[in-house]
């Protein structure tokens, strides 16, 4: 069975003339798009593109397939429109990265409900890689989470730095910043899903700090609870600031994460004006400026 995301990949390559530009338009990596085109070619039983270092051209099979592909996509769009007009309130399917604090997401959901209490909302929590796969397959309308500095987004929501999260009672908690050497004897906690995990490891290793790892977890709420309880300290984005935890700048540690709304043109045509989506984005953007 040919899935819709494969048709979208194919049309994007045809319209933009290159795999790299098509990948950017579809908000996927070029290897992901190339794998999708290869899968489509296996399904139709023929190569669809002539590939060279300078340009991409349709094969005879590709030229024959392109109008069918456009018709299929028009059919999908028409079916969606009919469903929206005849069915219940529009369903808004949003993926949200798991590396946001629960309090932030709770505030966002409250804002969404205030904007439209009757809205049908479906939220999916997960890793960005998994959420982007769902977006590619048309199973999500948009994804909110950390993105590369160069990635095309529908809306930039903000940039935040990483800080040392310490128990409020810690001897260093009143400091504005700490040096790596100040932390040499501290027990630390590993946030396994942290986007800056590799940067953090390299930073401390380069400064000769090899701490005892008191805990490793994929659950950020549990991680912050263990920090507040005094088990260990950790590196976390600024948005995790809360009562019981002091967020202190780590000298020389400069990574930041950019937060954005990712979608595609088709989905944004349907949901771009949604007051519910705008309320969620506004809440996250405001939280990141605290």
TrEMBL record:
Listed GO MF terms: DNA binding; DNA-binding transcription factor activity
Domain of life: Bacteria
InterPro entries per the UniProt record, alphabetical: LysR_HTH_N (IPR000847), LysR_subst-bd (IPR005119), WH-like_DNA-bd_sf (IPR036388), WH_DNA-bd_sf (IPR036390)
SUPFAM superfamilies tied to this protein: Periplasmic binding protein-like II, Winged helix' DNA-binding domain
GO CC term, one of those recorded: protein-DNA complex
Keywords: DNA-binding, Transcription, Transcription regulation
Pfam families given in the database record: HTH_1, LysR_substrate
Family, per entry: Belongs to the LysR transcriptional regulatory family.
Protein name: Uncharacterized protein
Organism: Croceicoccus naphthovorans
């Amino acid at each position: 069975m040919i899935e819709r995301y494969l048709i979208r990949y194919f049309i994007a390559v045809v319209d933009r003339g290159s795999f790299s530009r098509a990948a950017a338009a579809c908000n996927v990596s070029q290897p992901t798009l190339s794998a999708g085109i290869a899968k489509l070619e296996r399904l139709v039983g023929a190569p669809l593109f002539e590939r060279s270092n300078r340009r991409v051209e349709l094969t005879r099979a590709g030229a024959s397939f392109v109008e069918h592909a456009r018709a299929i996509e028009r059919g999908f769009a028409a079916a969606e429109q009919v469903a929206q007009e005849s069915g219940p309130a529009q369903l808004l399917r949003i993926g949200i990265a798991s590396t946001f604090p629960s309090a932030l997401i709770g505030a966002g959901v409250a804002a969404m409900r205030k904007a439209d209490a009757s809205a049908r909302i479906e939220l999916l929590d997960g890793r960005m890689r998994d959420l982007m796969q769902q977006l590619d397959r048309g199973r999500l309308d948009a994804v909110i989470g950390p993105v590369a500095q160069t990635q095309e987004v529908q809306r930039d929501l903000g940039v935040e730095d990483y800080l040392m999260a310490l128990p409020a009672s810690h001897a260093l908690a009143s400091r504005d910043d700490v040096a790596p050497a100040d932390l040499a004897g501290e027990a630390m906690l590993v946030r396994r899903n942290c986007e800056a995990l590799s940067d953090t490891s390299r930073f401390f290793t380069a400064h000769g700090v090899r701490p005892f790892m008191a805990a490793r977890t994929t659950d950020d709420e549990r991680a912050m609870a263990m920090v507040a309880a005094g088990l260990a300290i950790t590196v976390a984005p600024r948005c995790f600031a809360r009562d019981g935890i002091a967020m202190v700048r780590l000298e020389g540690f400069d990574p930041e994460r950019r937060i954005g709304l990712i979608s595609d043109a088709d989905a944004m045509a349907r949901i771009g004006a949604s007051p519910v989506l705008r309320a969620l984005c506004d809440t996250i953007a405001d939280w990141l400026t605290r």
